[in-house]
Amino acid sequence: MTAYYEAEAEILKLARVLGVEPERLEYLARVDADDLRAFRDQVTDTLFDANIAVLQRMALAARLLPGGVLAKIAEKVFGPLLCARIAGLVEVSRGVDVAKRLSPRFLAEVAADLDPRRASAIISRIPLDTVLAVAAELARREDWITLGRFVGHLPDPTVRRALDEIDDPGLLRIAFVLDDKNRIDHVVGLLPAHRLGRLLTAAAADEDLWTPALDLLTHLGEDRRATLKPMAGGLPDGLRERVQATIK
């Protein structure tokens, strides 16, 4: 089942990159998740490398403008898509300075179009208050895919604070589309101890969350899964059996 869950999550993310509804890609459900991830990365690279020479010249020209002026131009002229394309080409200190001056709403739109692999150094240095404001805006939009893509590029203290601002159903959906599933156990370890049990409670109340919850369980370490065994008996039929099979 783990392979099925991971393929389903990859289809959701691939659909975002391609700008199509996930249902159109259901025929890929039996493709290995690693292959889907590699394909998604190839598509992303193709999109970001298009017109790379022009984007590099724009990034160089941006060095000549004061940060405040550049931030205004970014929001009023460039727009989020172009900003996302340029972000990985500007100097880190310059990128951080401009990001601090942009509105959380606009930054959330940039984040949705950004390839975090290309701007990881900038992302990791953005001030905590800015990250929290953008995370809140993305959660309001229920943009779990974008949130999941950025977790691996932020320092642990920032991740901990950001997850404090997201409710339990949202956290399950973020974990489901996390880019690096090997980090799930580590990320869960950043949460207060009582919150892991709350995630199961959230899943019990909404059948749509069963798959994200079960996927989360498959990526937890044995010790953390063991702490959930006493809760399994109180779960709804169907979910209970699947949880028990996962944490046995």
Explain the overall architecture.
With 248 residues, the chain is mainly α. Among the domains are: 50 residues, no CATH class; 82 residues, no CATH class. Helix 9 crosses helix 11. The chain is built from 17 helices and no strands. The radius of gyration is 19 Å and the shape is globular.
Structural class: mainly alpha
* Tally of helical runs: 17
Sheet of most strands: none
The percentage of residues in β strands lies in under 5%
Helix content: 55-70%
* Overall pLDDT metric: 91
Radius of gyration: 19 Å
Shape: globular
Count the beta strands: 0
The end-to-end span amounts to: 15 Å
Listing every helix as H and every strand as E from the N terminus to the C terminus, the arrangement reads: HHHHHHHHHHHHHHHHH
Low-confidence stretches: none
